[in-house]
Design a protein that fits this description.
The complex is a heterodimer of chains A (62) and B (730).
Chain A lengths: L2 H16 L3 H12 L8 H14 L7
Chain B lengths: L18 H23 L8 H27 L8 H4 L11 H12 L3 H9 L4 H28 L6 H8 L2 H30 L3 H24 L4 H23 L11 H17 L6 H26 L11 H4 L9 H8 L9 H5 L13 H24 L3 H8 L2 H4 L3 H10 L6 H10 L12 H15 L6 H36 L3 H4 L4 H24 L4 H30 L7 H23 L7 H13 L10 H41 L26 H9 L12
Classes of the chains: A mainly alpha (62), B mainly alpha (730).
Chain lengths: 62, 730
């Protein structure tokens, strides 16, 4: 694999692991489901995404 | 042999594997066996740590290729024609089919913490052989099996939690016991981990400053992601890691400056700070502290563990510890009391078998899996990775001179406060270290003292600084690497403390909400404050008694933590065995039944000894009686220095003894209930109703393992190479 491919792969992995891609995924879903309605802004989307964790922080093990 | 991911059963008349595959696996088996031979047979000569690495990796490869595959196919009967909950219930929020490598990363980050780093370091007092064998065989036959099987059963039930499965499969007693066990282990776990941090930071201005700085760094990252660059997690984490490294370097400056005094804290002060911090972290919104901290610790975790693996391979250090010490048979070790059986298996929980993982395996992970066959890679594979972390921690502890190891890990009451007293005390154990060497070792990492720095973290940090500095930087960077390692451990212990306190608070709110409705409302502030306070005070109590216990907190509390964790594993394995039997798979029930029997034997023997042993070093009540009698006679018993400390020992021993007995009763209750349910299931004529969700045909295509096989690549190409939405995997 060429260097660019490897770096691209690492970037893809980190963005997936941290959930940075979730907004792009949300936009895809939103356009498919409700083409007329305006989607949430990035700021609003991320705000709701992190605030959901307030009620469900997810366990971390020992 | 390449399995087609879309068929459940292997085709009739299985094709013979190609010669190349046979030769490769034969070679792996031979190399692994040679490494085991070297480890097991060398006596009185020092061997290279590489042999441990080779034995571990060889065993993992064989286990993953053959045993895990057997479990997936024959025992669980994974079926890739069946849609997973992630595919069926995909809502873009909780349920989402996610690339298998990403799920593996998530799952590993959630299960791996300080546990596999601390346990093996303490268990090194028995020598490297028992620890190595338990970590490797334990993970292959118990730990990884538990994680994978629970992950699969939860996935077949739309991601139900362990508690829900225990209630539905075993009955109300099993369900309540699971709930109580989870809460109890959480409290003990948080106390023990916080104690590790306190012991690592006490009297160390460098460490204290660096760790204190993680709070403003996390707050900054949280603010940055909320206000300035919403959602740019990678960018923010890179900034955060850079600041973190700066904080480690800065700690060195602080240590040499006039501010050193302000960051030199006593263990008691640190304990109070941690309790206050835990409370704040639990009531503040997640975006401020917990979320950014979690990103930081995930990156540090993955980075440092990879670095350590590379370091061990390059440095190839020599093991200085004995293969088997006399403490294994006498049970008189200073780090923790008791003989090899059962206490090695209690001390090393995470890394070999950890019940806590069953909570993660029945939490978020089953809601992300694309294909059923991926449970092998995610469940079994991630646990093998954690086991490897434990092996590296064991190596880091065993490359130290035994004299230094005992001078750092025996309780302060035994060693005294100075290098001279520690040197004399270590000599009574049969090991030697001169006061000069001990002082020099502390000076090399720029710490005031290394005497009685119990808890495992400082020992591991010394081992890691040896390994890292022999690869990069030499002597001059030793102090940096030491504090880097301390930071790495403390960082994710504090993340566990944050998240654990919050999870404990939710459990409490949930339970108490049944009694008094308003407390159950997650958004109600006073409810949050009250329940958070209850949780932090509960673990804070054990932490504080651990810090002030003249007998040594780690020495007293770590066995309780191990018992609690293995108890949870017993519940998880009992649930798994019950499901296997109830679904008509009695002939495969040994897969989880044998580890269950072993785990029950270990947990119950350990609890029995902790409660009933007449040896005051092991039995909590014998210890209590000894000190209570001395108090009645008006005499002081070392290491207690005054009447208050005598009273403290009496109270602590009583509380710890009651807890050990309580844990044993819980295990027995769950096992008895599960046995009854299994017995009925075996006796019944007609098949029992299934508790799985209905079969729905899957439309997704995705590889089963880390690397797609040629056949899977063809299938992906036909399916349009769509692997889960968003950006497509490279």
């Amino acid at each position: 694999m060429r260097l660019a491919g490897i770096l691209g792969g690492i970037r893809w992995y980190l963005r997936e692991l941290t959930g940075e891609n979730q907004y792009a995924r949300y936009l895809q879903r939103h356009v498919a489901a409700h083409p007329q309605a305006a989607p949430l802004s990035r700021r609003e989307f991320e705000r709701r995404r992190v605030d959901r964790a307030d009620a469900d922080p997810g366990a971390r093990c020992c | 042999m390449t399995a087609s991911p879309t068929t459940t059963h292997p085709p009739a008349g299985r094709s013979r594997p190609p010669l190349k595959t046979v030769l490769t696996w034969t070679a792996v088996a031979i190399v692994g066996a040679i490494a085991w031979g070297v480890i097991a047979l060398s006596r009185g000569e020092e061997i290279s740590a590489i042999w441990l690495v080779v034995a571990a990796l060889g065993s993992y490869a064989i286990a993953y290729r053959f045993y895990a595959k057997f479990i997936a196919r024959k025992v669980l009967r994974v079926d890739d024609r069946r849609a997973t909950p992630a595919e069926r219930l995909d809502d873009g929020v909780d349920f989402q089919p996610t690339d298998r490598r990403v799920v593996l990363g998530h799952h590993f980050a959630a299960i791996a913490g300080a546990g596999p780093l601390v346990g093996p370091v303490l268990a090194a007092q028995m020598g490297y052989l028992p620890g190595t064998m338990w970590i490797i065989f334990g993970v292959i036959f118990a730990g990884a099996v538990q994680d994978m099987v629970i992950l699969f059963f939860s996935m077949r039930r739309n991601g139900k939690s362990l508690g829900q499965m225990a209630r539905e499969e075993i009955g109300p007693i099993g369900g309540v016991a699971a709930l109580v066990a989870v809460f109890a282990i959480m409290i003990i776990l948080l106390a023990v981990l916080a104690l590790v941090v306190v012991n690592a930071l006490a009297k160390s201005p460098w460490g204290t400053f660096s760790i204190a700085m993680t709070i403003p760094i996390a707050l900054f990252m949280g603010f940055y992601m909320r206000r300035i660059r919403p959602g740019r997690v990678v960018e923010t984490s890179v900034i955060g890691v850079a600041l973190l490294l700066l904080a480690i370097v800065g700690g060195g400056w602080i240590q040499d400056s006039g501010l050193a005094g302000a960051f030199t804290l006593s263990p008691e002060t640190l304990a109070i700070c941690l309790v206050g911090y835990g409370f704040l972290a639990s009531v503040l919104p997640v975006w401020m502290l917990l979320a950014p901290r979690d990103y930081l610790s995930t990156f540090m975790k993955i980075g440092t563990i990879s670095l350590l693996a590379v370091g061990v391979l390059i440095a190839a250090p020599v093991l200085k510890a004995d293969a088997l010490t006399s403490f294994a048979s006498t049970g008189t070790g200073p780090v923790f009391a008791g003989k090899l059986f059962p206490f090695v298996f209690i001390t090393i929980a995470c890394g070999a078998l950890s019940g806590f993982h069953a909570l993660i395996s029945s939490g978020t992970t089953p809601k992300m899996i694309q294909k059923e066959s991926q449970v092998r890679m995610v469940g079994y594979g991630a646990m093998l990775m954690e086991s490897f972390v434990a092996i590296m921690a064991l190596i880091a502890a065993c490359i130290l001179e035994p004299g230094l190891y005992y001078a750092m890990n025996a309780p302060a009451g035994f060693l005294g406060a100075t290098a001279e007293s520690a040197s004399t005390a270590v000599a009574t154990l049969g090991f030697t270290i001169t006061p000069q060497d001990l002082t020099a070792a502390a000076a090399a990492v720029q710490e005031q003292t290394l005497v009685a720095r119990t808890g495992g973290a400082p020992t591991l940090a010394i081992g890691m600084s040896e390994i890292f500095s022999s690869v990069i930087g030499g002597e001059s960077l030793k102090a940096f690497w030491y504090h880097f390692a301390i930071m790495f451990e403390a960082l994710f212990i504090l993340t566990t403390v944050d998240a654990g306190t919050r999870v404990g608070r939710f459990m409490l709110q949930d339970t108490l909400g049944n009694v008094w409705r308003p407390l159950g409302r997650v958004g109600w502030k006073p409810g949050q404050w009250i329940t958070s306070a209850v949780v932090v005070l509960a673990w804070g109590y054990f932490l504080y008694t651990g810090v002030t216990n003249p007998l040594g907190g780690i020495n007293q509390l770590f066995p309780l933590f191990g018992i609690a964790n293995q108890l949870l594993a017993a519940i998880a394995l009992a649930v798994a065995t019950t499901i296997l039997i109830k679904s008509g798979r009695l002939k495969w029930a040994w897969v989880t039944g044998v580890p269950l029997a072993w785990d029950a034997a270990v947990t119950l023997t350990a609890s029995y000894q902790k409660v009933f042993s007449a040896d005051p070093r092991i039995g909590f009540f014998a210890q209590r009686d000894r000190y209570a009698d001395a108090l009645d006679q008006g005499t002081l018993l070392a290491p207690a220095k005054n009447v208050d400390q005598m009273h403290a020992v009496v109270t602590n021993s009583t509380v710890d003894g009651i807890l050990a007995a309580f844990f044993a009763v819980l295990v027995i209750a769950v096992l008895a209930n599960a046995t009854l349910v299994c017995w009925r299931a075996i006796r019944t004529r007609e098949p029992l109703p299934s508790t799985e969700t209905e079969f729905v045909e899957s439309k997704l295509t995705a590889p089963a393992g880390l690397f797609a096989t040629a056949e899977e690549k063809r299938e992906l190409a036909t399916a349009g190479a769509k692997s889960g939405g968003g950006e497509t995997a490279p």
